[in-house]
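Appendix B, example 12.
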Amino acid sequence: PRLQAEAEAALDPLCKQLGDLPLALFLAGSYLHEVQTISAAAYLAELQAGALTHESLVDWTEHTATGPAASLLANYDLLWQRLEGEANALARRMFLAAGWCAINTPVPQELLGQMAQEDETAVKASHLARALTRLYALGLLEQAQGGPKIHILLGEFARSLEKEHTALARCAGVLAQESFQANQSGLPAKFAELRPHVQVAAQWAEAARMASAGTLWNNLGFHLHDLADYAGAAQAYQTALRIAEHTVGQDSAMLAHRQQVRIAKAANNLGTVLHDLGDLQGAMAQFERALAILESSPEENRAAIPSMLNNLAGAKQDLGDLDGALAAYQRALKIDEALHGPAHPAVALDINNIGSVLSAQGDLLGALDAYERALEIDEQVFGQEHPTTAVDIANIGSIFHKLGSLDDARTAISRALEINELVFGLEHPAVAKDANRLGGVLLDLGDLEGARAAFERALAIYEKFLPPEHPDIAGVQANLDEIK
C-alpha cells in the first residue's frame, strides 16, 4: 500500500530493471511490502548492482507470510538444467552468447550462430533453427522480428554462468570482425543492426580487460563519425585510446608492438573527429603521434601509414600548407600503389586528395584529371550509388564550376547530393557540403532564390552538427551574406 503514494515515474525504472517479469514483480512487491524502510529508488540501486543475487529474488518469500515460496534464480537454474546433454550444446552456447549482447534487442540469427561456433566451421542453418526452437520453448530467448532477443534478467543469468568469459571472447571477436566489415562498406546502414550489440559487448569486454574492447570502441567510433555524431565518436575513440595506452608494455615484445599499433590507430581516428570539428592543431598532434608510432614499428605494421599520411596532409592543407600537404599525399600514393596496385580504392583516395591540392593551387585541369581517375576506380569498386563515388562526382562538379561550365557543375553536384541523401538521410554534413556547393553554382547561374534555399539548408545542417565557430559555418554564412 505504501507504493500508492509513489509516482509512477519513480516505479517505472524499477519495473524496467525487472523487465516487467510477473514473478519478479511479485517478489519485488513482496519485499517492499515487508521491508518498509527501503525506498523504491534505493531498492532499484541494489537491483542494478545484481538482481539475481538480491535476497528479494532469491529466497525472501521462504521466510515471510506474503505468499508461496519462490526464487527467480531457482527457476532459471531449472531451465538451464533442461539444456543438459550434447544435443543441447549449441543452444547453451547461443544462450551464453546472447547474454553479452544488448538486452531486449534482436540479434540477427546468423550473427548469433557465429557467436556460438566452437571453431571456424559455420553452424548449419537447420541446427541453428533447432537450437533456437529449444530456447524459445524454454523461454530462455524470445522470438522477435530481426532475430532472437534476451530478457534483462535472463541476460544477467547467462552472464553469471560464465566464469572464464569464453562466450564473451567469442562474441566480442565476431562483433569486431562484422562491425569492421560493415564500416569498410562505407554504408552506415550495414552497421545499424550491430550497433547496440557492439556498444554493450565493448563495455563487457572492457570490464573483462580484453584487447578486443579497444577494437569494438574503435569500430563504434568510426560508425558514429560516419553519422556525424562527433561527440559520440570522440568518446568512443578516446576510450579505445585509453584502453590501448593502459595495456601497452604488459606482455611480450610482439604484443607490445601490436598495442602500439592500436594506440596509433585510435589516436589517428580521434584526430579525424577533431579535424571535422575544426580543431586543426589538436588533429595535427594526434596524426603526428600516430604516424611516429607506425614509422618506428615493424614493417608488417606499416600498412596503415598511407591513411595517416592522408589525414595529416588534410590538416596541413586546411592550415594553408599546400606544399606540405601535396608531399604527404604523394608519399601516401607511392606506398598504396606499391601495396595494392593502381586500381585500389586507397589509391583513388590518394589521387582524389592530390586533386584537391592541385585545385587549391590553381591547376584546374590537373585537378580534373585526378578526380576523373579517382572516379573511374571508385565506380568499379563501389558502384555508382556509393558515398565515396559521390565525393569524386562532387569534386568534378566543383572543377566544372571553376572552369565556368555551370550546367555540367550543377548536374554533377546535384547527382552527388542525391547519393548522399540516399545514404545518410536529409540531414548530414556531407549533404550540407553538396548543398553549399550547389548554392554557389545556382548563384552564378543567376538563380538567387535557389541559391539562397541551398545555402540556408546547408547552414541549418551544419549548425546542427558543428560548433558555432566552425569554418564551414562561416563559409556558408558568407555565401548567404553575398546574396543579401
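Residues 253-276 form the longest helix (24 residues). DSSP finds 25 helices and no strands in the chain.
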